[in-house]
Design brief:
By secondary structure, the protein is mainly alpha-helical. It is 76% helix and 1% strand. A two-stranded antiparallel ribbon has the order 1-2. Helix 3 packs parallel to helix 7. InterPro entries: MetI-like, MetI-like_sf. It is a multi-pass membrane protein. Its main location: membrane. This is ABC transporter permease.
């Protein structure tokens, strides 16, 4: 008996979606379920996991308050700093640069991704270290300047490492901007600053929110930059997780922190999506 067209369509869709669904379930859902189970367990005497059902691990989250504090403060500040630097670059690429050179310049934005973040961060360690900028400052009489192993060094590394991820979403939004709106605003006598805040910025907000959400979510789990540029003095949650899983071997407590981090990421993502939806709805109403 031949299958109905709708049934064939559903089977084809299921066949196309099944590989990705199985992959996500095996490598994303199952490990997260294991982490949740570990979070309610206890540390075995020799380290690792011991079966139990307790909320003691979540009650002990305060012992890692410094890691949570640094992450929840420096991650948003780092994302905002990326935005401040990225928006003018994205605006210049999308609005000011001619189409002839635009592709070349956009390619230069992603060139840093061709090199390992580890190598680039080590380069900043040298630049900010005793033989780098502080040494140059000593030559002109400014002594005892310490740049490495400070929150400022971590923020600098964050901006440098995540800047392309902020530029690209904003660039995509600005590239789709209808230039006739800018011309109409100028013809009506609006100043450039008024045109920017009244047209350009509102229409690019979806890209801005996407960039902020993307960078913030990745920064919440950042490990490498705080470890190298913070020198063990500026701990993020990612550093705490490495310590608990690989050194202290306290898997239940590390799992509790990981689950808490996932909850924070989900909350950040939902807030960003809600703001983006409201902005999109407002933009549609304004254009109508």
């Amino acid at each position: 008996m031949p299958l109905a067209p709708n049934t064939k369509k559903r089977l084809v869709t299921a066949a196309l979606v099944a590989p990705a669904s199985i992959w996500l379930f095996v490598f994303l859902v199952l490990p997260f379920i294991a982490i949740i189970v570990f979070a309610f367990g206890e540390r075995a005497p020799e380290g690792g996991y011991q079966a139990a059902f307790t909320f003691a691990q979540f009650a002990n989250l305060g012992s890692r308050a410094a890691a949570f504090k640094n992450t929840l403060i420096l991650a948003p500040i780092g994302a905002f700093a990326c935005l401040i630097v990225a928006y003018p670059v994205a605006y210049y690429l999308a609005v000011k640069v001619s189409a002839k050179y635009r592709l070349l310049l956009v390619s230069l934005v992603v060139v840093p991704f061709w090199t390992s973040l580890l190598v680039r961060t080590y380069a900043w360690m040298y630049i900010l270290g005793a033989r780098g900028i502080p040494h140059l400052l000593e030559m002109i009489g400014i002594e005892n300047v310490r740049l490495l192993n400070t929150p400022g060094a971590v923020l600098l590394g964050i901006v440098y490492g995540y800047l392309p991820l902020m530029i690209m979403p904003i660039y995509v939004s600005l590239e789709k901007l209808d230039r006739r709106l800018l011309e109409a605003s100028a013809d009506l006598g609006a100043r450039p600053l008024s045109t920017f805040f009244g047209i350009t910025l509102p229409l690019s907000l979806p890209g801005v929110m996407t960039g902020i959400a993307l960078v913030t979510i990745l920064l919440l789990g950042e490990y490498l930059i705080p470890q190298l540029l913070g020198g063990g003095k500026v701990f993020f949650i990612g550093n705490a997780l490495v310590d608990l899983f690989l050194q202290s071997r306290n898997w239940p407590f590390g799992s509790a922190i990981a689950v808490t981090l996932v909850v924070v990421v989900v909350i950040v993502l939902l807030i960003a999506m809600r703001i983006a939806w409201r902005v999109a709805d407002t933009r549609q109403v304004d254009l109508v």
